[in-house]
Amino acid sequence: MTGSVVGARTQEQMRQRNLSEVLRRVHKDGAVSRAALGRRMGLNRSTIMDLTAELAAAGLVREGVPIGRGRAGRPSIVVMPEQGTLYGLAFDVAVDRLLAARVGLGGQVLDRREAVRPRAGVDLEDVVGVLATFGRELVDRAGPGALCVGVGASYCGLIRRADGTVRYGPHLGWVDQAFGAELAAGLGLGLPVEVGNEAHLGAIAEHVRGAGRDVDNLIYLHGDVGVGGGIIVGGKLLDGDGGYGCELGHMLVNPFDGRPCLCGSRGCLEAEVGEEALLDYAGRSGELVGRDGIRAVVALAGTGDARARDALDRVGDWLGVGVVNLINLFNPALVVFGGMLRDVYPGAASRVRARIDAHVLPVSRERVRLAVTALGDDTTLAGAAELAFANLLDNPLDTLATLR
Amino acid sequence: MTGSVVGARTQEQMRQRNLSEVLRRVHKDGAVSRAALGRRMGLNRSTIMDLTAELAAAGLVREGVPIGRGRAGRPSIVVMPEQGTLYGLAFDVAVDRLLAARVGLGGQVLDRREAVRPRAGVDLEDVVGVLATFGRELVDRAGPGALCVGVGASYCGLIRRADGTVRYGPHLGWVDQAFGAELAAGLGLGLPVEVGNEAHLGAIAEHVRGAGRDVDNLIYLHGDVGVGGGIIVGGKLLDGDGGYGCELGHMLVNPFDGRPCLCGSRGCLEAEVGEEALLDYAGRSGELVGRDGIRAVVALAGTGDARARDALDRVGDWLGVGVVNLINLFNPALVVFGGMLRDVYPGAASRVRARIDAHVLPVSRERVRLAVTALGDDTTLAGAAELAFANLLDNPLDTLATLR
Q: Which domains does chain A have, with CATH numbers?
């Protein structure tokens, strides 16, 4: 009865799923032996050989003997992503810069462009103009043998995933702007642009190739002017019913006396720990600004400036309240700080930890680690690259057939 | 190449997965036609017929023609769960009572026992003694042809899922008590007892057969003395890295002036909206107590008692802060109130909604519904029954073979 119950359609689905899983692992882990792949996927040797051979024939992976392995006996064949010819375009509209990169399958940045972005008064046309020019240059320089397999973009705002519309971009004042569609048109590659919220993408990047490679439950807090979040639950991004989940910057931590927030509310986490709060507490509002300003306050605190020290402590207290709530809610294995919080966290860690000790339930405190991003300021860009590769990884052969 | 790539092992896995999926749908939806099953699962007619025939031959489902359908043409065969012979035992250690029930496959309560539980000073032996006696009576009355397929228990505390240990039960003062193992020994059925946190199980029950049947992203808030939570994300319970997620009762909503909480912290959601807060604000602390006390305050507010009205408003304000944060974090389609919050929410709804209007981001406010539980006070018991059925639903034929 087995054969008839499975049915031809589901057999084919299973084969596609296995191909997808092999390519995903090679993309994530880099060079990996066939033996290790088989072990991790619970598949036998001949099945794995068939799968990797099929991916190699399609030009998605390369098989080879690892160089410099002096061990005796037959070496296990290693499978590597075809990073030289298959690439994704990744874009990042961050609070202070515009970024574009050509990223090879496997996640390596092969080429990149960057522009400083004014903090306000930048409309859709300006942003798309710069990014599309960057993108076309990157494609031109890739050479005729290379193939763009997808385009992803990170944006610091609320995104409707279905069509890449920016529903709300507080810093640029954008409301319902067709960013994804316009960038796709500007690039003229005949490919859609998948757009994601920067902190969601940061969480994905940390999970795939950053500080959270080995954990399936993590929280990523991304600071810039505001604070965004991405939450990985059981290995998947929590994106909520409409894709607008993880708005942890708008968690009310100080509901009745809080500082005003850009969202119109008061006492949101981002209002209490964002750039403005830190500079204001430090008495440097107006004088310092942006990422450099934040780094200056952190440096001042390190040299004994009392107001700067006090500012970091206050931000640490509120950040601690937010982190306590997130740990009690999600029982994560890891909390990662990125963006400007990468600079702030080390100086605020003792306050954050004191709150955790005081308020997190012991069962959830047992295992949680806190860390800064392992990908530096490229976290969100790396997440955009993951969006670019998503279709190829989900459906390797069909996606490639459509592209060629 | 298809056959070799799939491999015998994965074909068998696929068949088991399909059998599991059919049984799960029949368990959830009750009588369902083979045509509807095929449509929903994307399988053709003959594959579905094979699957349901195999489940029927094993005694897991029954197939039949629906009664009273007057329509012309060949009626579609309907598949029903074998609820008469296959049952689970479900237990509930709630804050004020001990419950036991025999629940048929498909979710119907076939028989039940209930005892009032003192609020404190009850040790593991007492609780297990009462529940095990109830359980043995329920098994005896089930008759010789019936088969117990699993045992689940709901407990109002933090549970280590792996072995059913109560890590922390604040109301009974339990720490690291081997509840699951002791109850299993007391029942003497040779079956393990799966134990879950009451609010986690409430969330599962609301998702499977309650107010959230049709949504995959929901939050369940369960009030008793404290407040617990269960969160379903993408159709699955968020249980965190150690199984201790969703402790939303210990979200800090009032971090610097808050009421003391049983957990040792201050200003936790449960300290601000729990039974004690409501009775205290109403000026009825010491006079009224428990669920009846809460209902009395709600009734007083309804008849114009100013202090009772004020108490409901204050609780509504803090409950609103908690709900705002949950909606901003999870972007759920539904928030369900159960336990004593089932009584409190209707009288506090306007305050909760005012907070949502003031503080939730528009994109997340667009779709969220708020409701009280559709399963009354049996929500947590129904969740325990789902634990009892979990193994059978995951692996129908193997589980049954082990049991018989």
A: 2-81 (1.10.10.10), 86-201+380-403 (3.30.420.40), 211-374 (3.30.420.40)
